[in-house]
Amino acid sequence: MSTPNFEYLDIPAGRFALADMRSRLGARIIDTVIIGIPIGIVDAVIYRASVPYDDSAEVGSGFGIDELLLAIVLGLAFSFAYEVGLTATQGATFGKKALGIRVASADTAGAPGEGIGIGPACARWATLMLPSALCGLWGLLCSASPLRDGAARQGWHDRASKTYVLAMIAEP
Q1: By C-alpha distance, which of 154, 158, 146, 166 is closest to 6?
Q2: Are strands 101-105 and 163-167 parallel, antiparallel or unpaired?
Q3: For residue 74, which of 148, 133, 154 has the smallest C-alpha distance?
Q4: By C-alpha distance, which of 109, 111, 115 is closest to 166?
Q5: Rounded Cα–Cα distance for residues 10 and 144 (Å)
Q6: Cys-Cys crosslink for 157: which of 49, 128, 135, 171, Cβ 3.0 to 4.6 Å?
């Protein structure tokens, strides 16, 4: 069995192992599934409610721009409640917890399980998710942005919120 090779971050609160990109990607996939299932169910209900039950409807009726906007708004609202709520209060979503990583600020790094607060959690979510609703490519670029930061492996959403994604391991 090989020992994982962690990179470490030294901040005033101490020395912490940075989460690797595989763990970050895996956590994002788990969280996407957790968020996607209820959003998919709601979208299916919206779609079914918008399709007429008889042949009397005119051609082209059904899932239109109003239903699409409603689905996007509801999806963003659920994503906000899940991601911001858990990160602000616990420092990790279910996906991050499952893969042993957490989000911390310089102030909260020394206290695993403590959230980063509502302000940083909102900034982190807004930087990642709001532009993604308009252009899906942004979400991919933002999620991959930690690869460009060698020192602290901060993505654009981490920099906007002044946070770090750390591994939950014992200090070296």
Answers
A1: 166
A2: antiparallel
A3: 133
A4: 109
A5: 23
A6: 128
Q: How does pLDDT run along the chain (172 residues), one tens digit per residue? A: 444 567 888 888 888 999 998 999 999 999 999 999 999 898 888 877 776 665 555 555 556 788 788 888 888 899 999 999 999 999 999 999 999 999 999 888 888 888 999 999 999 999 888 777 777 677 777 777 777 766 777 888 888 899 999 998 755 5
Between the two ends of the chain, the Cα-to-Cα distance in Å is 19
Q: Do 121 and 80 form a contact (C-beta atoms < 8 A)?
A: no
The predicted model scores a pTM of 0.80
* CA 161 – CA 84 distance, rounded (Å): 12
Question: Is beta strand 14-17 parallel, antiparallel or unpaired with respect to 101-105?
Answer: unpaired
- Give residues with Cβ within 8 angstroms of 13, minimum separation 6: 106, 107, 109, 110
Q: Which residues contact 20 (CB under 8 A, 6 or more apart)?
A: 4, 6, 167
Query: CA quadruple 69, 38, 141, 163: dihedral positive or negative?
Result: positive
Residue ranges per structural domain of the chain: 9-167
